UniProtKB/TrEMBL annotation:
Molecular function terms, GO-annotated: isomerase activity
Protein's name according to its UniProt entry: Aldose epimerase family protein
Membrane-crossing residue ranges in chain numbering: none
Alphabetized UniProt keyword annotations: Carbohydrate metabolism, Isomerase
Gene3D superfamilies in the cross-refs: 2.70.98.10
Species the sequence originates in: Acidimangrovimonas pyrenivorans
Length: 334
C-alpha cells in the first residue's frame, strides 16, 4: 500500500512541505520532507508522542530547526569552522561563534528533500547538494530511508556519495521523552560506552577520550535528575561497525526504547537549551529546557581536526552509510 502523504504547510519562501505517515504493527511515524524530520512517533496504547515536534511548519524554520532532523553534512561541531580536505583548506560559514555546528545554518536540516519511494511502512528521501554548498566540496547525493521494520521497530538508513573528496557525517537529531511530560526527569538512561570526549567552553572535544566516571558512567544505567550536564560524545567504537545495541532509555511510565547503531559515537545532549518560544509542541504547549533528551548516533565531533578520531572523509567512488534502529516496548513502570 502507498504511504499517507499530506500537506504540512508552506515555508517562508513559498515551497510546500509534505508529511508522510508510516504505520506498521504498534508504531506510527510521521516524517517531513523539510529536513527529513521525524516529526512524530506513536506507540499504540500510549496517548502521546515519544519524540518532540510541532504541527506548525514555521516552528521548523525557527527554534525547532534541529528537532528530529537529519543534520549535516557533518553533524556536531567543527572547530574554527575550517578543515583540510585532500590537502586543501576549506572555510565554512560559522554559525555558533567561531564554530560550524551541524553543517551550518543551511545544512541538510534546512533543505527540502525529495520523496523517492513512499510505501505504507517505508519512505525514501533524497537530497542533492551542489559543489560548494555551505563551503563543502563535491556534488553530493544523500538518501534517508525510514522503515518500520517490525511491529515495534523504526530503522533509519542514511547513505551518501560524492564526486569529489569531501566530508560526510550525518545524524538524526530527535529529542526523546517517553512520558509525554514537561521534562524527562526520572527517565533511566544506559549507554554502552567506557569513554567519552570532554569538551572546551566552545563545546569542542579536547582530544582526550576520558574513562567514564560519576554521572558519565552510564554502563549500568542511571536515573536522570537533569543535573548531569550532558552535551558530550560517548565513544562506542573506533570505527563504524555492525549494527549494535548502544543505549537504552526507560520512562517512568513504562515505555522502553533500545537504540542500535553502526556509528562509533553517541552524542548525548540534555536539552538544556530547548525553547520552542510561542510554537506549541505535540501536547499543545511550548517546550522548555529539558523537555527532551537528544541521543545522536554519529562520528566523533571535530573529526577533521583530530587525526585519531573516526574519519568523516568521503572519497569519490566511496559510499557513506549509517544504520540506526530504535525498538520500543511497554515494560512495568517504576
Amino acid at each position: 500500500m502507498a504511504a499517507d502523504i499530506r500537506s504540512f504547510g508552506t515555508l517562508s519562501d513559498g515551497r510546500a512541505v509534505q508529511a508522510v505517515r508510516l504505520q506498521r504493527g504498534e508504531l506510527t511515524a510521521v516524517v517531513l520532507t523539510r529536513g527529513a524530520v521525524l516529526q512524530d512517533l506513536r506507540l499504540a496504547g500510549t496517548p502521546y508522542s515519544l519524540t518532540l515536534g510541532s504541527d506548525v511548519v514555521a516552528a521548523y524554520e525557527g527554534p525547532l530547526a534541529y528537532f528530529g532532523a537529519i543534520v549535516g553534512p557533518v553533524a556536531n561541531r567543527i572547530g574554527g569552522a575550517t578543515a583540510v580536505i585532500a590537502g586543501r583548506r576549506y572555510d565554512f560559514p560559522a554559525n555558533e561563534g567561531a564554530v560550524l555546528l551541524h553543517g551550518g545554518a543551511h545544512g541538510t536540516q534546512a533543505q527540502l528533500w525529495e520523496i523517492v519511494e513512499a510505501e505504507e511502512h517505508r519512505l525514501v528521501l533524497r537530497l542533492a547538494l551542489e559543489d560548494g554548498a555551505q563551503g563543502f566540496p563535491g556534488n553530493r547525493e544523500i538518501t534517508a530511508e525510514y522503515a518500520l521494520t517490525a511491529g515495534f521497530e523504526l530503522t533509519l538508513t542514511l547513505s551518501a556519495t560524492s564526486d569529489a573528496p569531501t566530508l560526510m557525517g550525518l545524524a538524526n537529531h530527535s529529542y526523546w521523552n517517553l512520558d509525554g511530560s514537561a521534562d524527562y526527569a526520572g527517565h533511566r538512561l544506559r549507554v554502552a560506552a567506557d569513554r567519552y570526549l570532554p569538551v572546551t567552553d566552545e563545546g569542542l572535544p579536547t582530544g582526550e577520550a576520558r574513562p567514564v566516571t560519576g554521572a558519565f558512567d552510564l554502563r549500568g544505567g542511571r536515573s536522570l535528575d537533569l543535573s548531569e550536564g550532558f552535551d558530550h560524545c560517548f565513544c562506542l567504537a573506533r570505527s563504524p561497525r555492525a549494527l549494535t545495541p548502544v543505549a537504552e532509555l526507560i520512562g517512568a511510565k513504562g515505555v522502553r526504547m533500545v537504540m542500535e547503531t553502526t556509528e562509533p559515537g553517541l552524542q548525548v545532549y540534555d536539552g538544556r537549551g530547548v525553547n520552542s518560544g510561542a510554537y506549541p509542541g505535540h501536547a499543545g504547549q511550548p517546550y522548555g529546557p529539558f523537555a527532551g533528551l537528544a541521543l545522536e548516533a554519529q562520528r566523533w565531533p571535530d573529526a577533521p581536526n583530530h587525526p585519531g578520531f573516526p574519519s568523516v572523509t568521503l572519497a569519490p567512488g566511496g559510499r557513506y552509510e549509517q544504520v540506526t534502529r530504535w525498538q520500543f516496548e511497554r515494560v512495568e513502570a517504576g
